[in-house]
What we know:
Elements: H1 4-18, H2 28-55, H3 69-74
Amino acid sequence: MMSATSTLALTHFVTLADSFDKDKVTPGVLGFIVFAVIGGAVWLLMKSMNKQMKKVDFEEQPEEGDAGTATAASTPAPTPKTS
């Protein structure tokens, strides 16, 4: 059995459904909330990525054993034999 309040709520819902235009689709409040949450998540990820990239040192330092390779790199490479 339905109570009086649920019957009243149902009748109001039916009248709203009759005035609803089925050809018009809008995202509504839920669409805005989802879009805002995704935007906030992207902003936080970009902020975190920027913080991590600032920690990276891009300057290469030669290793101790690579001192001899610098002179070897300056010599020209041999040309391959063609038959």
